[in-house]
Amino acid sequence: MNIAIVDDLESEAQKLSGLIKKYCEEHFIPVQIKVYKNGNHLIDEQQPSSFDLIFLDIYMHDINGLDLARKLRDQGYDNLIIFSTVSTDYAVNGYSVQAFDYLVKPYDYNRFHKTMDRCMEELAHKSRYIVVKESRTYVKIRLNNIIYTDYHNHYIQIHTPVRIVKSYMSFSDFSKLLEPYPQFLNCYRNCIVNMDHVACLKGYEFILKNGDIMPITRNRKTDIKQKYADYEFYRLEQESKI
Q1: Tell me: the pLDDT tens digits for 122-163?
Q2: d(Cα 68, Cα 55) in Å, to the nearest integer?
Q3: Can you give the residue ranges of the HTH LytTR-type domain (predicted)?
Q4: Which domains occur in the chain, in start order?
Q5: What is the pTM of this model?
């Protein structure tokens, strides 16, 4: 994840950078942060599109955050912009540049955390892949390559057509990465199946297209069967729009 911070006060930029790093460490998100003291330098580099998220201070000497946001939008930047400010006086003006949110200084981590949670959800919808840490490296996995996942000895095991990716994290943290996507269903204890890879539902099992079998929790069979039927209807409806 690439993030830019534009703030002419280095101390404020460092505080925000610290919050970003803390959040990303807690959620196993690889991140690169670049700080700009002058917003025009961001424009001059002509690479704003490389950033998933840009934090803009409203009150700066060279160019204020709203004018910078307009320039970014005019250049075609369509990712997330969050304003940081000591006042919400300009909040209404933020709608004209599709600002995702406002953070008021001094920063409150609980408020920041909620904003970042929403950012992750929005970016997940845009990106269509997840990033997990495997050993000492980070692995990008396309959603359609995830057949199913299970949990063993504190490791998430992500089964793909090529190999099994193992990541040391809790099932709860991992399941949050897939929450925005309707094709993923928690069908058994600490197991998630990608319903796009399901051939059929038979008894208390999902038969997958590759021949693997995923069990279904017996006391949730009715609920799981309904969710599978709902997703099949949703998928057919989406395909009919193509």
Answers
A1: 787 666 789 999 998 888 898 988 999 999 999 999 999 889
A2: 11
A3: 130-230
A4: 2-127 (3.40.50.2300), 129-240 (2.40.50.1020)
A5: 0.55
